[in-house]
Structures are given as structure tokens and as C-alpha cells.
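Notes to self after the Tuesday call (sharing in case useful).
The group wants a holo model before anyone commits to mutagenesis around the pocket. I volunteered. Ligand is manganese (II) ion. Logging inputs and output together so the record is complete.
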Amino acid sequence: MENEELESYERAFSISNEVIEFARECAKENAHALELAETIENKIRELGGKPAWPVNISINEIAAHYTPSRNDSLILKEGDMAKVDIGVQVDGYPCDRAFTICIGKKSHPLIEASEKALEETLKLFKPGTKVWEISDVCEETVNGLGFNVIRNLAGHRVDRYSQHADPSIPNGKNKIQDEIEAGKVYAMEVFVTDGSGFVVESSPTGIFQFLRDAPVRMWEARKILEMAQGKFEKLPFTQRWITDISPLKIDMALKQLTDAGALMEYPPLKEESNGMVAVTEKSVIVK
Ligand code: MN
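Result:
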């Protein structure tokens, strides 16, 4: 890994540490999800980083990919299992982190299981470890604590301007032979549930990402496509980051862009049996 690359990663990692601490203090009972997401995103900017994607605040059976909308009314209530996923990038190099808190409670067995399994898997991030070995430890640790992993969610490698690079490191057992490599950066995330352990797509979609250029009719759609490649740097973005377009036109323009294959959508992922979900995620630079 080049020096400059390492410096950017290390900067993103240290900003993430501060932001996570800050976010833990802000995520409490009666907090507005929208305000919380924007406060965290602003904190990232204040510290000299950029959000690598919109802050995700996913509650209870929603495992991931929920970001508050411009006029979101969601408020964190006692007993809510709130998952906060934060991406920080410096010069395109991302650090991917997530934590869960049970609002109004000190902790929760699901959160403890997720933290424990993450800790165990992180010990294996050394050159030569095979993906299946990490997944084995992940699922066995979680099952040993009486819960299920979410089998169709995974840790992954990250790269410059790529928040989800190959290989994926599934939470559930598999036979994947890919090896952890030196000089690479990985984000390991462990999703734990008291449900069946499978997520399905839900709605409404609040996260989009540039895929390819495509001809679209609406002026507003062309403008959003420009932003997706320009100020959003081809990384995931959300409706509330779109400026200078009437909110009434944004959804229509986004629909045109996804229909044309210009943007990819990340709908919220819901646990299929409506089980509660906790996640813990850290990124590591393998040296
Ligand atoms: Mn991740």
C-alpha cells in the first residue's frame, strides 16, 4: 500500500473513532432520526472527512440501509434496537463502522452477541486466512450465544471509492476459499437476530448510487445524474443531499434514473420473520 493511501485510510479511521463516540452519545431516547443522521454527517465534515454514504439508522427488524428522508418523523423510543452505520471517506478511502444500541437500556443480549462475534472474527484478519474460516467462527459464536446470523449479509473488502469490494465475507458458513491479503482493507460486520436469519428488500428507498450514464428526459434527472458523478463522487447518496431541485420533482427524477439503469437503489433490508437485529462493524487494515 502506498504511503498516501495508508495516510488517507488512517485519517478516515481516526475520524471514524471520534464520530462513533459522538454518535453513541447522540443516539438516545426521543432523538429524531433525521436530526441524528444530519448531526453525524456534519460531524464527519467538521473533522475533515466526508460521509462515504448517508448515515444509516435502521430500527428493530430493519437490518440496514434505512436513512431518514427530508421530512422523516421517526423518533427513537425506549426499547428500539437502533443500528447506526457510518461511512467516512478521505480522498475516496473509506472506513466502514456500525454499532447498535437498545434505546434506554445499558445493553442487550443481541448486541453483546454481535460484539463478541465481531471480536472473534477480527482475530482472523491475517494474510492467508480463508473467508470460510472467518464465517465459521462468526456463525458458531453467534449460535453458541443462542441467536442466528443473517445468512445473506456479509462483511467485505473496501477500496478507493468502493464501499463494497470483493470478496464478501458472509455471516453464515460457506466454502469460499478466497484469502485475506496483506495491504488490503476489510470491513467486518456481524448481523445477529432472534429471527430466522434472512433479510428481504423493503421500502421506501432512501439510498442511491451512480451506475452509468444514460439519456433521460427530465432536466431534474440530468441534474441529479450530474451530482451523482460530481459532488457525490459516484458514492451512495440520498434525496436529502440533493439541492436546487424541488422536492416534488426529486422522486420522479430518481424513478426515471433507476428505470434507465443510471442509478442503483439500496432499499432498506428487513429481517424476513420480523426478528430484532443487531449489528457491529469495524474496518481493519491488514498489514
Ligand atoms: Mn459494511
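Two things stood out.
Helices lie at 3-26, 33-46, 109-122, 131-144, 219-229, 247-259.
The chain has a mean pLDDT of 98.
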